[in-house]
Amino acid sequence: FQMVAFVVDSLREKKKKPLAVLDYVNFISFFPQIVAGPIERRRDLLPQMEGFRLKFTGENFEKGLRWLSLGLFMKFVLADNIAPYIELDKMIDNAWYIWFEAFLFTLRIYFDFGGYSFIAVGLAYFVGVRLELNFLAPYTSQSINEFWRRWHITLSTWFRDYVFLPLMGSNKNWAPFYLFITFTLSGFWHGAAWNFIFWGAYHGALLLLLRYLGRPFYAFVGKYVSQPQILSWALTQLAVIFGCLFFMEVNTRRLIGKILVIANPFNYSLANIAEIFSSYTLNQGAVLSVALVFGIIVLILEHLAIAQKKFEYELLLSPWLSKILLGLTILLASTNTGNFIYFEF
């Protein structure tokens, strides 16, 4: 994607200045972001490669270490400690458990991809390179539109600039149709499986619903709810959690089966809630609880920063907290560490 964008941007901007082979090689193979992003553009990263000098300074190290501490904590303490409790290889007939599993996966992929993104930013800072921030507290979003402006930002803008806009051209009347097609294609990019196609189409459909029904719906709700933004946030998170079912379940038969289970109101009993807690041993429950508590604290700090009109990660990147996160990572890192999720796509 980065190479495609480079070629298209070069043609559009009619770049005639000779480009050194080494600069181009560095541009397309800069090690922190080569596997899972951010997808850098020519105008942002190439000038840094052309004028690159190893800038290993105290200031760069300090900034990089803050991002690195946050990223390592998200990956090894949060994502990897949650991952073992997500079972993807069996059919479940407990609706509450399916929702809980989807919720856990929602947190896992959030902290896994966020962790990767911040580690990449931190490593780049060490050598004096500034990468695009690819992940901007997406679970603070109050709409699906906002969610996609915050999640895998460079992928979203890539599909916008190189798929959606060229498809639509000047025919804006068909914009909703092309938006739906673009999101379906983004699902296909994640994997050649029906669940990813469903996931992309699902998010495309959500954006169309928001486009045509969102404003009148929230105008109506605003008459009866004192804090409509809280409702907006809750509905957005519920939609994202449900969408994670499509993303996590690659077996189409099991996926359809789980959707049928959660669609049946008779599968929501108190006994089924108790079954969730009884399925873990005391040690498993303790590990998962600690990971969830720390995860919720991270999310709360993101919300607090936004409420205080600060940069989303300003509180999490404070010098004293960075040291605490690094220490907690050494103490609580999972022994079941796996690859980053986005390495699979």
Number of helical segments with 4 or more residues: 14
Strand residue content: under 5%
Distance, first to last CA: 12 Å
The low-confidence runs, each spanning 5 or more residues with pLDDT under 50, are none
Average pLDDT works out at 88
Shape: globular
Overall SS class:
mainly alpha
Please outline the major beta sheet: none
* Cα gyration radius (Å): 22 Å
Record field, number of beta strands: 0
Order of helices and strands: HHHHHHHHHHHHHH
SSE order and pairing:
Elements: H1 2-12, H2 21-29, H3 42-50, H4 58-82, H5 95-126, H6 144-150, H7 153-168, H8 175-190, H9 194-222, H10 228-248, H11 252-263, H12 270-278, H13 282-307, H14 319-332
Structure description:
With 345 residues, the protein is mainly alpha-helical. 68% of the residues lie in helices and 0% in strands. The protein contains 14 helices and no strands. The chain has helices at 2-12, 21-29, 42-50, 58-82, 95-126, 144-150, 153-168, 175-190, 194-222, 228-248, 252-263, 270-278, 282-307, 319-332. Helix 2 packs across helix 3, helix 4 (58-82) packs across helix 14 and helix 9 (194-222) packs antiparallel against helix 10. The chain is globular. The model has no long low-confidence stretch (mean pLDDT 88).
